[in-house]
Design a protein that fits this description.
Blueprint lengths: L13 H10 L4 H32 L22
């Protein structure tokens, strides 16, 4: 705790706050948060890599992606009124 001085409403210096934060121990909660964040990043990178690889595989000849053709029951252009 800070010692009582004449300035009761005075804010501690930023260097004091930084020193106190640096002195805090690493707890199991910190490790859990680190592991969860690392796993999230890992799966995100895997998804991006897998998507790129599959895109390259399915776009390579002779497996070209055909343009989409609608099979709806109405004509593509409406008749002139």
């Amino acid at each position: 705790m800070m010692a009582a001085t004449g300035d009761e409403g005075a804010q501690p210096a930023a260097s004091d706050i930084a020193a106190r934060l640096d002195a805090l121990p690493v707890t199991p909660l910190h490790r859990i948060v680190l592991v969860v964040c690392a796993l999230g990043l890992l799966f995100d990178v895997i998804e991006a890599g897998l998507g790129n690889a599959l895109s390259a595989v399915f776009s390579a000849p002779p497996y070209r992606v055909a343009p989409f053709r609608s099979r709806c029951c109405w004509p593509r252009s409406s008749p002139a009124a």
